[in-house]
Structure formats: C-alpha cells, structure tokens
C-alpha cells in the first residue's frame, strides 16, 4: 500500500485495479483487456453480452471504460463522470460460494469487513435494448453503493442455461472511498516511487471530461449523428440479413461469418443514440422508436451469435464422431 | 410429540418480500401438519425471518399419523357373487383393500347393491410425511420475482438456497430442496460470527443459538431494538427527535440481522436546500432517518441503521463513510438545484413539447394546455358557486405544472415530481397560490394521502387526473379486471377524495368534470362519468365503510354530488337501525316489484292518482298520509336534513302495512288497478330522492 499524504494508507487507483485483477485471476478468470468500442456499461462488451449465451462455461474479468454522455458534467461535479471505469467479472455458471468470493475480494482491497457495515440490497438489473435482465443486489458499504451484483437470467431475449453471475465494481467510487477523498478528481491514480510525485485522476482525465461533455452537449452535429446512426444500422441489418443463410454455410464460411462485426455496429448505434439523447435531440416519442430499432439489432445479433455457436459445435461433433 | 423446526437459508432476500414470505411459510407448514394429521388444529407456532433466512417452529408434532379406517367401494354385488360364491372380482377387491373376502360388506347405493370393505390406512411416520410434503410447500411460496440459479434450471426461487435446517425434536428430517439436504446446522451473522456452522441441539434451541451468533431472528424483537436505538442515539443531541417513518423502520428491520444505529452529521450549509429534497435523498436513496430540532425543523443530522456492531473506533469509521456518501449526494442535489434554476419555469414550457405524455395524446405541452383550459372551466364554475379562489393563479399553475419534468432534479429524484416544480416556482417568485398548487398537483397520490392545501391546487389536481382519464378512455385504454396499467382508478379515486375532503366544498359535480374533460364528446363523457360513479361507490364502501346495499340505494337516487351522496349514505345508515324504516323499505321493495311485474305484463298504470277511484279505507289513508308527508320530506331534503327526512319517511309504516294487509293492487277492475298502481308509483317517486329504499336489504 502506498501512503497518501495525511490519509490512512490506501490503494492507488491502479493498485486497486491490480488487486482486483489478481484476485479474480487467482480464481480462474481470464483477464481480458477493455473492449475498444464505446459502450455504456461493462455488460455491453461482447465478453459479457455474447459470452453469457450458450452452455460454455466462462470465467472472465476486465476493466471496462463506460461512456454515458448524458452523465457528463463538464468536470464540474465531483461525483459524476461522462466516462467511468467498471471492473466486470463474469462467472458462468456461478460457483455456489460466489457471494463469499466477492466478500473476500473486498478483503483483498484492504477492507476489514468487521470494521464496516455491509448490506446486500435488492437491485435488479435490466437492459431492455439487449433483452437482458437479472436479479441481484447493490452492495452497500457504509452507505456507499460499491458493486452491482447480478444473477443474469436472460440475454438477447433468450433464457440462459447455465445462468451467470456478474459482479460490477465501480472503481472510481471504491478508490474515492478507500482514499477518503470528496472528489473523484482528487483520487491518487499512481505515485512515482523514485520522486514521490502523485498523479491524480484529475490530471489524467479532467480534460477528457470537459471536452467530451462539451462535445456531447454543445458541439455534436445532430444531423450527422442521425446519418451515422442510419448508416451503422443499415450495415448491421445487412449482415443480419446475410446471417439467415448461416445453416447452409460450409464450416469455414460459417466460422468466419462476422457476427462480432455486426455486434460492433449495433454498439455504435447505441452510442450514437446516447449522444443524440445527451444533445437533447431525441423526443420521448422518438426515443421509443429508436430504442426499438437498436433492440432489433442487438437482440438480432445475440440470436445469430447463439445460432452460429450451435452450428459450429454441431459440426465439430460430427467431425469428432 | 416433538417440536418441529424448519429454516431455509438464502442469499439476501429483498426486504420488501420478507414479511409476506415469512407469514406464508409459517401458514403453509402449519396447515400441512394439520392436513397430515400431525398436529391438532390451533397448534402453537412461531415464525422468524432475517434477510438471510426464513424459519418456522411448531410445537407438539406427533411422531406418526394415526391409522384411519377408510371405506372402500368395490364392484356391484351381482358381479362379486355368483350363486352365493365370491367371484374373482370379489377376491381382487378384497386383496386390494387388504381384507379377507369374508370381511367384505354389502352397502346399498343409489345405483344398487355394492360390496364394500373397511380398510385401515396405516399412518406414516412424521419425518417421512414432512420430507415428502415440505418441498411442495416451499416451491409454492409466492415471490414477486423469482430466479433460476442451478444448472439445468430445476427450480425457481427468490434467491439461491444456501442451507436448510429441518429438525423434529433433535432428529434431522431429510427434506431436500434447491440442491440442499436439510441438516441441523445453521449459520450466524456473516461478519460478526463468521462462516462456521452452528449445530442445533434441537428444534427449541434455534432462537437462542442464533442470538449468540449475532442474529436476532424474531422480526418484532429486531424492530423494537431498532426503535430503541433510534431513540437512544437521537437523545445524544439536545432537543432532537427522529422523524417517525414506519415504512423505513420496516425496511431497515428487513435489511438487518444484528441492527445498531449511528448518528451522523452534515454541514449546515446544505440546509439551504429544500427540506423535501434533503429528506428524499436521506430516506429514499440512503435509507437514513431525518432528524428534526425542537422547533420541528430539519437538523443537520441523520440516523443510519447498520447491520453490525462495532467499537467506538469502528463506529467512527462507519460514520465517516456514511457522511461522505451523504455529502456527495447532497452535492449532486445542490448542483441540480443551481443548474436547474438557470432556466426559469416559463422558459421550460416550450421544452415540454419534446416530452411525450402519451403517444396518441401528444406532448406534455399539449397536456398542459388542455389541463389549463380545464382548470379555467372548473375554477370559474367553482367561483360562480361561491368558492373564493384565484382563477388566474390556478390556470398559471396548470401551465407550469409539468415543467419540472425537464429539470435534472426530477430526472434524478423522480419521486419529487410536482414538489420540485412547486419549490422552483416559489424560488422564482411566483405567488403562493401558484407555487402551492404546483406543489400539491399530484395529491392525493393514494387513499391515505391528504388532499391539496389550497382550492387552486385541488382544482389543478382534479383537472390533471380527469384529463388523463378522459384521454385514455378516448383511446379505449380503460382499466379491465385487475389490469390498470395507467393507474386510472387511482386517479379517479383522487378526484372523488378531493371532492369529498377538500377544505372548502367544491360545487363541482362528477358529471360536470367528466363532461368538461371529455370536451363535448357526449359518449365519452358518459363513460367517464360512469367510471367516476364506480369510484365513488368504492370510496363510500372503502373510505366511509358504508354497506353495499346502502351505497347502491343512495347512488340510485343520484351520484353526481359527492358530498351529498356521502351525507345521504350516512343518514340512511343511521336510519336503517329503526324497525319502522326497515318495514317501509321492505314495503317499497314490494311496490317496486309489483310495478315491475305490471310493466312486464303491459298492465296500464294511471298517470295520476284519482281520489274518486280509491275504494278501500287503507288505500285512502296511504294516499292521504303520503301526500301530506311528501312536502315535508322534500323540504327537509332540500335543507339537507336527511336524517329528519328519513325519520319522516319511516312514519309511513302504519299506512303501508295496512295497505298491503287489506288491498289487492291487481284488482279485477282495470281502472281501480291502474289507479292503485299510480298510487304506488307516486309514493315511490316522492320518497326516493335520498335513496332508492327498495335496494335496502332487510334482515329476516
């Protein structure tokens, strides 16, 4: 642990991430890197959204920057960000002691549970656009929501079997809590060991918050955004149309069919929609319609993905048999 | 005899579902044991619940079911015996029943002679029965939301099962559910006691074993512990009191196994934010209790209920953490408050064009226009009716009423809708008549909620609700059965409650409100009015506790004036205790039946009563007395002295009794008959202004 001036010893932002990654790697999770397309939540990364589908077991963890344009505050609000970082852990099927594992991860961060008040309060999760939902809790530590813990039940409109356990840590919140700072921007990100120089969260990210808030609230060209949305949508739909012939493809063509590409296009649409929304360019009437359009893409991709997995699996079995 | 204990251990159950599930589990287990003849009816039982467990204990469970004799019916005698000898059919039946052929009996049934046997059903041992029945009972428990958690999705339950205890005395009952076998091991508080199991010596050891493991299993004990701790901790601040909040006490009781309370503070500077905002943040977002000072004003303190206990150093850490969170939340609120004020409400009216009220009914801008127009109509009517109110203020409030939907504060704290608009209007210098009306526009939100403080607010609230109802009805989206997705029944209940309970009586009828809201569409207006009357009926029964028949009788005599209907219902309820009134009501019912039969048989009814055609003394007496009474009943009714009027009606008893004793209404003479029917019609007509007494159900 690094000593932070005047405060009791607490992890830096990056040490916090290291600890959690190490913890989950030790429990069999593959550490994936952040997904490099804009997403509103860690759940939307294909490492969650697509991997939870089908019977194949998965243990994966990754830190995912999540962009929510409407939450931008030009860097003026000490607790709210346009882009924040989630640590996403997916355990499929969930081990029977997943709750205990989670609590141990807090201990690994230096949180002595006997010194704190911890509660699991009902908070069910839902992403209607992805046809995804689960039941679970927000985990409260001394009154602070530090984690969303969800047992995924459905994804892409399909029932999951096995179901999957999802643990999402809000890294900035936990860091601010551990370091006892009132503003996210004051979080110590890293300390240079030789000089002792402290690098703060603000130093790394404030400019981004200011500029992206300005972009999404003031500069983003509404007409162009709509064009982007239409183009991404059209391309995604074209791929989904071609995917109707999945069951007639030979093995190589089937394996190479770009369902993952289609998913990226759907994610692009989702992000452009969020930008339009932050820009105040979507009326509530339109909202329902546009969300239905994006849902058709996202759920459509999930179904095609599941089908592709099933067909590939069947072919492999035939070969093996 | 032994005591039975069952506990199911779960990952944290949602607080809102615990009380119901606790009661249901206890009821299911007790009923199951009764049904299986393992306990006598009324057996003593006790149930327990915490976020991580539901449990029930039942006293005096029999070791096994008693054997019971059971009569079995076999084949007919004809089939069972041939020439006096038992046939193979008889042997087969005897074998099945477990008796000798010689022990078969003959019984006669409606279908003829049959053979029968008295078989003894051997009772099973209790643990076998319980092991077989418990899984079904557990699977039957209702949960508002269920989940799957096991591979292959074998069962759904509220949360994953973690353990089960099933003990009959000190013996484990092999109940199997959710992938777990019941044992004698339970678990204590996760943090304070740790994860090691606690082996229970017997069913009776449950509560005390858990107490030692930092779990208060008895919900009521936990609730009292919290209340006492809230009191004790608040007393550390001179003159302070915690804001009573039963619902919040219930929630925190269901969120904790070993509760304690801390007092936290916040900077006084946040007190410039409206109390409503501060309390909502504390209550709805943090589950903290607000604290007030001697004068009842919000104090810069809060109370948090913990699910742990700690020494002073530990408590300081926890307090500090909770204060940090609250400060961040208050900062957000302050940010919204200041940010929102940059765009005044008047400018927000235009923004409402982008906020949809309902797909086919257009934006909130349109809704605000319609509501403003409706408010103007209703307010003018009220003013014409002698109510003192500021029509312009009411209309202005209507125009601004929905603008807070465009504010960040409402986007963040949706439960403050309306209230935020009212607070912003006040802060932006609107007169109290405007800001208070906006503030109260959603009142009453439930049958228990109070109505608007001001007439302007009451009119606005009614107009807003009536517009929604008329709009939805116009689209054919009326509630059906238990389905009411737009909460239209609640909205109409609100209108009735306002008319019934507003500080000043509003001279507005349900018909006027329905007609105005339906803006000239007669068919729609009639549908809306009928819906209002249905809700008035509900109000009279549920809120006023009026009997079903009284409500029916009163509404048959008029259902547009809510306060009048209430007054009439109360008078009828008071009057129905008198035997004279009951007798008259019964007689009126008879009159109505006779007239209905006459109408059915197309028998002529005179258009008025001809004194010359009255022949019998008793009909003359009824005609004379009722005519004499009609005037005074009418004037008493006009003075709204309904009890007096009903007392007068009751005095008609001797005449109606004598009439039905002596007179045959359906006289052979056509003219006499028509005249008698005319008399009955006149009597009914004259005395049915307060209520249609023929609807009153008379005892005996």
From TrEMBL, chain A:
Keyword match Mitochondrion: no
An annotated GO BP: glycyl-tRNA aminoacylation
GO cellular component entries: cytosol
Domain of life: Bacteria
One MF annotation (Gene Ontology) recorded for this entry: ATP binding
A Pfam family that the UniProt record links to this protein: tRNA-synt_2e
InterPro entries (alphabetical): aa-tRNA-synth_II/BPL/LPL, Gly-tRNA-synth_heterodimer, Gly-tRNA_ligase_asu
Principal subcellular localization: cytoplasm
Coiled-coil stretches noted in the UniProt entry, renumbered to this chain: none
Keyword flag Ligase: yes
EC number in record: 6.1.1.14
Location of the protein in the cell: Cytoplasm
Catalysed reaction, written as an equation: tRNA(Gly) + glycine + ATP = glycyl-tRNA(Gly) + AMP + diphosphate
PROSITE patterns named among the record's database cross-references: AA_TRNA_LIGASE_II_GLYAB (PS50861)
Keywords from the named record: Aminoacyl-tRNA synthetase, ATP-binding, Cytoplasm, Ligase, Nucleotide-binding, Protein biosynthesis
UniProt-listed PANTHER family: GLYCINE--TRNA LIGASE, CHLOROPLASTIC_MITOCHONDRIAL 2, GLYCYL-TRNA SYNTHETASE
Subunit-structure text: Tetramer of two alpha and two beta subunits.
Sequence similarity: Belongs to the class-II aminoacyl-tRNA synthetase family.
Name the record gives this protein: Glycine--tRNA ligase alpha subunit
Species: Edaphobacter acidisoli
From TrEMBL, chain B:
Cellular component GO terms, alphabetical: cytosol
Main location: cytoplasm
Catalytic activity: tRNA(Gly) + glycine + ATP = glycyl-tRNA(Gly) + AMP + diphosphate
UniProt subcellular location: Cytoplasm
GO biological-process terms attached to the record: arginyl-tRNA aminoacylation; glycyl-tRNA aminoacylation
Record keywords, A-Z: Aminoacyl-tRNA synthetase, ATP-binding, Cytoplasm, Ligase, Nucleotide-binding, Protein biosynthesis
Cross-referenced InterPro entries: DALR_anticod-bd (IPR008909), Gly-tRNA-synth_bsu (IPR015944), Gly-tRNA-synth_heterodimer (IPR006194)
GO MF annotation list: arginine-tRNA ligase activity; ATP binding; glycine-tRNA ligase activity
EC number: 6.1.1.14
Domain (DALR anticodon binding) ranges: 590-696
Subunit structure: Tetramer of two alpha and two beta subunits.
Family named by the database record: Belongs to the class-II aminoacyl-tRNA synthetase family.
Name of the protein: Glycine--tRNA ligase beta subunit
Organism, as annotated: Edaphobacter acidisoli
């Amino acid at each position: 642990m690094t000593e932070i001036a005047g405060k009791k010893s607490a992890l830096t932002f990056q040490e916090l991430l290291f600890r959690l990654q190490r913890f989950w790697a030790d429990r069999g999770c593959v550490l994936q890197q952040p997904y490099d397309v804009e997403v509103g939540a860690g759940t939307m990364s294909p490492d969650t959204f697509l991997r939870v589908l089908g019977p194949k077991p998965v243990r994966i963890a990754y830190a995912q920057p999540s962009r929510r344009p409407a939450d931008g505050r030009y860097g003026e609000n000490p607790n709210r960000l346009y882009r924040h970082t989630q640590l996403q852990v997916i355990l499929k099927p969930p081990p029977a002691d997943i709750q205990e594992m989670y609590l141990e991860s807090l201990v690994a961060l230096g949180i002595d549970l006997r010194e704190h008040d911890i509660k699991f309060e009902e908070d069910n999760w839902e992403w209607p656009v992805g046809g995804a939902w689960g039941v679970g809790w927000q985990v409260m530590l001394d009154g602070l929501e530090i984690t969303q813990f969800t047992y995924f039940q459905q994804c892409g409109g399909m029932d999951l079997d096995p179901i999957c356990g999802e643990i999402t840590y809000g890294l900035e919140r936990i860091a601010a809590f551990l370091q006892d700072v009132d503003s996210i921007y004051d979080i110590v990100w890293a300390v240079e060991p030789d000089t002792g120089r402290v690098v703060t969260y603000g130093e790394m990210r404030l400019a981004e918050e200011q500029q992206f808030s300005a972009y999404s609230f003031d500069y983003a060209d509404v007409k162009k955004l709509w064009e982007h949305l239409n183009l991404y949508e059209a391309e995604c739909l074209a791929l989904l149309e071609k995917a109707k012939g999945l069951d007639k493809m030979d093995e190589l063509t089937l394996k190479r069919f770009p369902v993952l590409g289609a998913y990226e296009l759907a994610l692009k649409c989702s992000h452009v929609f969020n930008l339009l929304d932050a820009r105040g360019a979507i009326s509530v009437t339109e909202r329902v319609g546009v969300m239905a359009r994006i849902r058709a893409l996202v759920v459509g991709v999930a179904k095609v993905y599941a089908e592709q997995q099933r067909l590939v699996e069947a072919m492999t079995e035939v070969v093996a048999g | 005899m032994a005591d039975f204990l069952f506990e199911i251990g779960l990952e944290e159950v949602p607080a809102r579902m615990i009380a119901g599930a606790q009661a249901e589990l206890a009821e299911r287990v007790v009923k199951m044991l009764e049904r299986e003849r393992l306990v006598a009816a009324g057996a003593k039982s006790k149930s327990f619940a915490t976020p991580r467990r539901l449990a029930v204990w039942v006293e005096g469970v029999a070791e096994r079911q008693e054997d019971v004799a059971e009569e079995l019916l076999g084949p007919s005698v004809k089939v069972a015996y041939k020439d006096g000898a038992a046939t193979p059919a008889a042997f087969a039946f005897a074998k099945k029943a477990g008796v000798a052929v010689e022990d078969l009996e003959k019984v006669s049934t409606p279908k003829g002679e049959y053979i029968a046997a008295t078989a003894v059903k051997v009772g099973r041992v209790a643990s076998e029965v319980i092991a077989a029945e418990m899984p079904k009972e557990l699977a039957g428990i209702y949960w508002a939301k269920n989940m799957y958690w096991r591979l292959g999705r074998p069962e759904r339950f509220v949360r994953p099962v973690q353990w089960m205890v099933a003990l009959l005395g000190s013996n484990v009952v092999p109940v199997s559910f959710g992938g777990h076998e019941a044992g004698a091991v339970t678990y204590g508080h996760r943090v304070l006691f740790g994860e090691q199991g606690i082996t229970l010596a017997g069913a009776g050891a449950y509560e005390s074993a858990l107490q030692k493991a930092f779990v208060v299993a008895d919900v009521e004990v936990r609730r009292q512990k919290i209340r006492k701790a809230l009191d004790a901790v608040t007393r550390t601040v001179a003159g302070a009191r915690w804001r009573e909040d039963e619902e919040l006490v219930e929630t925190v009781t269901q969120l904790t196994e070993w509760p304690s309370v801390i007092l936290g503070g916040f900077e006084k500077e946040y007190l410039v934010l409206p109390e409503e905002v501060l309390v909502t943040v504390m209550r709805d977002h943090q589950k903290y209790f607000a604290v007030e000072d001697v004068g009842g004003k919000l104090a810069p303190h809060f109370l948090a209920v913990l699910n742990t206990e700690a020494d002073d150093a530990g408590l300081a850490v926890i307090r500090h953490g909770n204060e940090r969170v609250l400060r961040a939340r208050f900062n957000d609120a302050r940010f919204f408050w200041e940010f929102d004020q940059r765009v005044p409400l008047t400018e927000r009216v235009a923004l409402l064009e982008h906020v949809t009220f309902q797909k086919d009914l257009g934006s909130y801008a349109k809704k605000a226009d319609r509501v403003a127009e409706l408010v103007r109509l209703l307010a003018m009517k009220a003013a014409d009716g002698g109510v003192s109110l500021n029509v312009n203020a009411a209309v202005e409030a209507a125009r601004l009423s929905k603008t807070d939907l465009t504010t960040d504060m409402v986007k963040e704290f949706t439960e403050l809708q309306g209230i935020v608009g009212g607070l912003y209007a006040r802060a932006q210098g609107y007169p109290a008549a405007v800001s208070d009306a906006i503030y109260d526009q959603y009142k009453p939100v439930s049958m228990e909620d109070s109505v608007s403080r001001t007439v302007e607010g009451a009119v606005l609230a009614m107009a807003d609700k009536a517009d929604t109802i008329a709009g939805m009805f116009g689209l054919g989206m009326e509630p059906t059965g238990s389905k009411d997705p737009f909460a239209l029944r609640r909205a109409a209940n609100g209108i009735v409650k306002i008319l019934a309970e507003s500080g000043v009586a509003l001279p507005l009828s349900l018909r006027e409100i329905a007609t105005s809201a339906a803006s000239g569409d007669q068919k729609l207006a009639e549908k809306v009015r009928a819906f209002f009357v249905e809700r008035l009926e509900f109000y009279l029964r549920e809120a006023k506790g009026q009997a079903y028949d009284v409500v029916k009788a009163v509404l048959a005599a008029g259902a547009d004036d809510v306060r009048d209907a209430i007054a009439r219902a109360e008078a009828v309820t008071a009057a129905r205790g008198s035997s004279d009134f009951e007798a008259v009501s019964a007689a009126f019912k008879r009159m109505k039946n006779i007239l209905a039969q006459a109408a059915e048989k197309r028998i002529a009814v005179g258009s008025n009563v001809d004194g010359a055609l009255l022949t019998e003394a008793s009909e003359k007496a009824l005609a004379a007395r009722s005519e004499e009474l009609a005037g005074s009943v009418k004037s008493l009714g006009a003075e709204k002295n309904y009890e007096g009027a009903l007392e007068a009606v009751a005095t008609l008893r001797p005449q109606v009794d004598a009439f039905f004793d002596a007179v045959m209404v359906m006289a052979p003479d056509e003219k006499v008959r028509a005249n008698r029917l005319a008399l009955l019609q006149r009597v009914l007509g004259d005395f049915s202004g307060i209520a249609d007494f023929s609807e009153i159900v008379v005892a005996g």
